[in-house]
Write a structure and sequence with these properties.
The protein is α+β, with helices and mostly antiparallel strands. 50% of the residues lie in helices and 20% in strands. The chain is built from five helices and three strands, in the order H-E-E-H-H-E-H-H. It is globular and about 40 Å long.
Length: 114
């Protein structure tokens, strides 16, 4: 096998082995209006390090509003804008923030001692 073929194989292999990024879906209590369309559900994806730039993790864990407004547009589908997040029902912001916090805590935090 040529060196180029080996290098290409090595580059392609890790991409195939990457696990799927976990997501959670939130049904909004108060839908967001986008023109004539209402957004009733938002999918939140587990943030990778790049999505957390410019924000202190402790602020996200404590569901600081400004930190959530910075990170959520980077990890939601449909992508919510900062303006939409400023107008969001507080109950919906708490739901979205709790998903982010749960992702940051990891698997060990979900396990309980019996």
């Amino acid at each position: 096998m040529s060196e180029k073929a080996q290098a290409a194989e090595q580059v392609e292999a890790p991409a195939a082995e990457l696990p799927a990024i976990p997501t959670e879906t939130v049904t909004l209590d108060t839908p967001i209006q986008r023109g004539s369309k209402a957004v009733t559900e938002v999918t939140v994806r587990k943030p990778l390090s790049g999505a957390l730039r410019g924000v202190a993790l402790v602020d996200l864990l404590s569901m600081d509003t400004q930190s959530l407004q910075k990170v959520l547009p980077r990890i939601t589908e449909p992508a919510l804008t900062e303006a939409e997040l400023r107008k969001l029902d507080p109950a919906d912001l708490v739901q979205l923030g709790s998903k982010v916090s749960r992702f940051l805590l990891g698997k060990r935090a979900e396990q309980t001692d019996d």
